[in-house]
Amino acid sequence: MIAAAGSGERLGAGGPKAFVKIAGRPLLAWVIDAFRGAESIGAIVVAAPPGTEERVAAEFGVEAVRGGEHRSESVRAALELVGDEIAVAHDAARPLVTPALIDLAVARLAESADADAVVAAAPVTDTIKEAGAGGVVERTLDRSRLWAVQTPQAFRTGALRRALEGDVSGATDDAMLVERAGGRVLVCEAPAENIKVTTPLDLSLATELLRARA
Ligand code: CTP
Ligand code: MG
């Protein structure tokens, strides 16, 4: 399930981020290639920007559904087409994902019988502080326990379905909904270069990384 329905406001490219070209191809094309290359993936569903479903299906040769207003609503729409035991959610905004990382997340989940989800994540390298009103620091978190969570995120489909019931508008990833529902989520270490393209700075960085890979 590729969440591609966002408007890309912070990138400011004047249209949906998934169609913005990076190293010569749309962000979504890089992501679809990685999923096609993953042995653990049987089918791809894209949650597309409303009104572009047919174009996405035709141009990229995938199933496409109308995305929702919030990210997890887009994942919920895509999940309706999933009949398998494991479902993987990924952001179209992470074009540096690799088949190996997707397969690793799925394999970890398959071998962890008591887990509901496995999420790609990188150890945090900055010191993270919590600050309140006026920027007054309240505490410094223990960095050795912190992970910057990415996608892909692999789920037991039933657990994800239950977690996506109700209001999901405030969720920044799907795993937090599984956690909220009492589920067990594991991190699996991913390369820090699997960045999310959010701002123009990220776009430049991701362009360099994709070019270097080619
Ligand atoms: N996404 C989605 N449906 C939404 C909102 C976001 O499928 N209603 C997807 C985006 O397409 C992106 C991923 O979720 O691949 C991560 O979201 P984000 O980086 O916030 O992308 P945008 O919402 O497009 O960007 P912005 O918040 O700057 O508008
Ligand atoms: Mg957004």
Written account of the structure:
- 32% of the residues lie in helices and 23% in strands.
- The protein is of the alpha/beta class and 214 residues long.
- Strand 4, helix 2 (53-60) and strand 5 (63-66) form a beta-alpha-beta unit.
- The chain has one domain: Alpha-Beta Complex (Spore Coat Polysaccharide Biosynthesis Protein SpsA, Chain A), CATH 3.90.550.
- The strands form three sheets. A seven-stranded mixed beta sheet has the order 5-4-1-6-10-7-11, sandwiched between helices. It has a two-stranded antiparallel sheet with strand order 2-3.
- The longest helix has 14 residues, at 200-213.
- The chain has helices spanning 27-37, 53-60, 71-79, 99-111, 157-163, 175-180, 200-213, and strands spanning 2-3, 21-22, 25-26, 45-48, 63-66, 86-91, 117-123, 129-131, 137-140, 147-156, 185-189.
- Bound molecules: cytidine-5'-triphosphate and magnesium ion (MG).
- Cytidine-5'-triphosphate is lined by residues 3-10, 17-18, 47, 67-71, 74, 91-93, 196, 198.
- The backbone outline, from C-alpha atoms, is globular
Number of domains: 1
Ions, cofactors and other bound molecules: cytidine-5'-triphosphate, magnesium ion
Low-pLDDT regions: none
**CATH T-level topology:** Spore Coat Polysaccharide Biosynthesis Protein SpsA, Chain A
CATH second-level architecture: Alpha-Beta Complex
User: Average pLDDT across residues?
Assistant: 98
CATH superfamily: Spore Coat Polysaccharide Biosynthesis Protein SpsA, Chain A
Q: What is the ordering of alpha helices and beta strands?
A: EEEHEHEHEHEEEEHHEH
What is the number of E strands? 11
